[in-house]
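Subject: for your reference before the review

Hello V.,

The reviewers asked for a structural picture of the protein, and I figured it would be easier to keep everything in one thread rather than splitting it across files. Below is the amino acid sequence we used in the manuscript, unchanged from the supplementary table.
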Amino acid sequence: MADDWNTRTKLVHGGIRRSQYGEVSEAIFLTQGFVYDSAQAAADRFENLGEDEFIYARYGNPTVRMFEDRLASVEGTEDCFATASGMAAVNAALMAVLTAGDHVVSSRALFGSCLYILEEILPRFGVEVSFVDGTDLEQWRAAIRPDTRAVFMETVSNPTLEVIDLRAVAALAHDAGALVIVDNVFVTPVYSRAAALGADVVVYSTTKHIDGQGRALGGAVCGTRAFVRKVLEPFLKHTGGAMSPFTAWIMLKGMETLDLRVRAQSASAQTLAEALRGHARLAHVAYPGLPRHPQHAIARAQMTGFGTVLALDLKGGREAAFRFLDALRIVTISNNLGDAKSIVTHPATTTHQRLSEETRAALGIGPGLVRLSVGLEDTDDLLRDLRQALDHA
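And here is what came back from the structure prediction:
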């Protein structure tokens, strides 16, 4: 693969390994194991695994490796390991580096399952976790200590769309010798500059924009080759969170259109956010592309686009939100995002329902908040649908 290829070319051609048959579409190596020419060849491969050699699908597979190489090339990292889901990626990125007695600093505004790992699972194993307002650099500065092993954040928070100053937080973390781990799903690989801004480890739920068509669960962890192969891979290959070859093939196919989809969806999201801002039924519209967004300047500095998701806060709370959701004709009620179909979610009763009312309030997840993931439908049709549903709210 040429180093000077642009993103769209890498998304189509990156990482391809053609068999002796010269196929156009990437081959699915649907196998859990591999054979050896001799007993000595097997012993040699286990002793010193070559660059393009494989032992067992839990450790690696040619189709999966194609996907890993392609995503790493787009993300601007040396390597990548594909996982069974986005949460498998988040869990592995943290668990592979932490041990009892370590300290982690995390932004407080996170997806519910990410919060569960940091609040419930890590403390069981003796890891201390401090939470901060991710948009407040002074809180990061005060919380990061000499014994801080890692910091964790969503570069754009789910579902309130706060944008964290990644470069500034990374500088504080690196001064303390801490690893910077970011969940970058809202930014997408298309708009990401996470590695250039100081992220050591970049995590994706490939279920979202990379697949983009609601077909398969998947995740990925991107980072240096030393981290991915020496730290992360041993953890994942022994705990079993690997991506299947068929899923990897789906993700490869999704990546071919990723740039086109994300740019079209983001353009629609910007149009919808601007059109709905100030609507009489809405208390607030959150989208990083709006100049009034509190972190708009940060978003402009560290993203090359503003993403496919916006949040609408309806006046009238849960009842108004439910009436709005039920009145939609095109937009689908679900809990995914990044799909070709527009999807709306009520976080307080779904993705973040396990949190206490007080915690949700502190995070800005009120009863009237809905998260809108903008799809590939005609923008005018979406706007009409949203407006008529707001009339019912």
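For the response letter, the relevant points are probably these. The two ends are 52 Å apart (CA to CA). Residues 258-276 form the longest helix (19 residues).

Happy to draft the paragraph if you're swamped.

O.
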